[in-house]
């Protein structure tokens, strides 16, 4: 690992630790329009995404230096699997539109529970990570395609 990568990991890790400590000290859930209250969340996401980006870049460079293809088959599979949450959301939306199961009183609570669990607990928290992974894959594959003879 190069010196600048170690420094970047230390900075991004420090941002993550700082944000977690601010959240643990009772800063609570902040509104996104108030920078002072939302800063721990911005720091945490920036720190986590930064560490992931540096580690992926390091791993791909290490594979290339070892004579292997930088973009492995497992990395390609993870890229295609990152579209799975969006596909699930699209399928549920289409099924709801075709089936006509609106918010009538007979299915109100079942629909609220289904969409509450599906969206609030499973899909929405992982969307930023999936989008980041897709952007990172496209950027790294373009970089290594350009470098290969």
Automatic annotation (TrEMBL):
<protein>
    <submittedName>
        <fullName>Uncharacterized protein</fullName>
    </submittedName>
</protein>
<feature type="transmembrane region" description="Helical">
    <location>
        <begin position="38"/>
        <end position="58"/>
    </location>
</feature>
<feature type="transmembrane region" description="Helical">
    <location>
        <begin position="7"/>
        <end position="26"/>
    </location>
</feature>
<keyword id="KW-0472">Membrane</keyword>
<feature type="transmembrane region" description="Helical">
    <location>
        <begin position="79"/>
        <end position="100"/>
    </location>
</feature>
<keyword id="KW-1133">Transmembrane helix</keyword>
<feature type="transmembrane region" description="Helical">
    <location>
        <begin position="112"/>
        <end position="139"/>
    </location>
</feature>
<keyword id="KW-0812">Transmembrane</keyword>
């Amino acid at each position: 690992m190069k010196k600048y990568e170690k420094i970047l990991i230390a900075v991004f890790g420090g941002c993550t630790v700082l944000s977690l400590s601010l959240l643990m000290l009772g800063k609570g859930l902040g509104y996104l329009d108030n920078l002072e209250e939302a800063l721990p969340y911005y720091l945490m996401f920036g720190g986590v995404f930064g560490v992931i980006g540096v580690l992926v870049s390091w791993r791909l460079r290490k594979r290339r230096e070892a004579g292997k293809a930088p973009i492995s088959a497992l990395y390609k599979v993870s890229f295609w699997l990152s579209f799975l949450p969006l596909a699930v959301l699209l399928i549920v939306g289409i099924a709801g539109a075709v089936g006509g199961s609106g918010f009538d009183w007979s299915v109100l609570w079942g629909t609220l529970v289904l969409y509450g669990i599906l969206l609030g607990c499973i899909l929405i928290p992982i969307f930023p990570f999936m989008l980041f992974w897709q952007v990172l894959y496209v950027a790294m594959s373009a970089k290594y395609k350009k470098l290969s003879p």
